[in-house]
């Protein structure tokens, strides 16, 4: 069979060129192998973050590590309907989808307001009640990070659970400090908050007067417009108000929360109804105006006359900004707390606190001063209890039902 010689010659030349290129590539690799390996070792696809110490099984932070806050866009919490950006949690998505072709405005769910349905009822009412003009804007391109600082007390163990479990998805960092004990750390070691432990910075042997100056150097990527929330012990804050802080700016500062004042459980209310206790502000405001003093965000004794004029209070008698659940613990824990604090027992009218004494207070609805009569709370009441508690009533039933009263026990 005849084969044209130029075709054979071309194929041989092409094969020779390919072999020569392969030889050059292999030679280059071996000659530069040390240099290439050195470059590969320097490549990092993720920021260098010090991994939590896994040797002891610990999945929470201490002051031995640095906490790197993530930058997260706001886009995932908003949907684009035609030309409208609607906040997912506050928008009636089902209705919007049905009439998507003709609907050019966000259809807000009950309790949400604003052009994007991102204003919760509590903030909407606070802005209306304010006598000042506020130009709240949003959503911001990147979420403000929320840092929640509070103290752990053994007698408030149930409230710690409510705070972390109910707000774990929107809080970027919980700073939990404990003074003179390590009960909470033992709970962390038992992985009591396994789902959110990677967001917890635990600080021991400390108090609120210097907590921020101690932890701030360990928080990386902190921005001036991030928020710090401070609520010392018994507060459970409204989730909608907290999530609003992540996406909007120009909110009046400082921010205080008017809380529904429950005692022994959500079935008893203090006659004063509400209490202003917890507070929040941006990192910039904390540094420049409050001189990094978190205590300035704690409004002691409900003295509203000391509130800054430019600030805002979230919550009123009809829609509170959360719950202040005082003595919401077992009789044993209440006794332990009362006997460890400085209380004038002469005013209480007894020289010895007993289990029976506490049970009688809970049963009859009398405050710890043995004089103040508490008011009854009902499940039909507005803001009777935090949604997380109602959704997990099997876990918090003793705070929802007065088991020491026969009238409530058999309801």
The count of DSSP E runs of length 2 or more, i.e. the number of strands, is: 16
- Quaternary arrangement of the chains shown? single chain
Helix and strand composition category: alpha/beta
Q: If you compute it from the alpha carbons, what radius of gyration comes out, rounded to the nearest whole angstrom? A: 29 Å
Strand content: 15-25%
Stretches where pLDDT falls below 50 for ≥5 residues? Answer: 31-51
List strands and helices in order, with pairings.
Blueprint: H1 5-31, H2 33-42, E1 67-68, E2 78-81, E3 84-87, H3 93-98, E4 112-113, E5 119-120, H4 121-129, E6 146-151, H5 157-167, E7 173-178, H6 183-189, E8 200-204, H7 211-215, E9 219-220, E10 227-230, E11 235-237, H8 239-247, E12 255-263, E13 265-282, H9 283-288, E14 312-314, E15 322-326, H10 331-339, H11 345-348, H12 355-364, E16 375-376, H13 387-391, H14 397-400, H15 406-409
Parallel strand pairs: 1-9, 6-7, 6-10, 7-8, 12-14, 12-15
Antiparallel strand pairs: 2-3, 4-5, 10-13, 11-15, 12-13, 13-16
For the structure shown, list the relevant keywords:
alpha/beta, 411 residues, 16 strands, ten-stranded mixed β-sheet, globular, 15 helices, 19% strand, two-stranded parallel ribbon, 31% helix
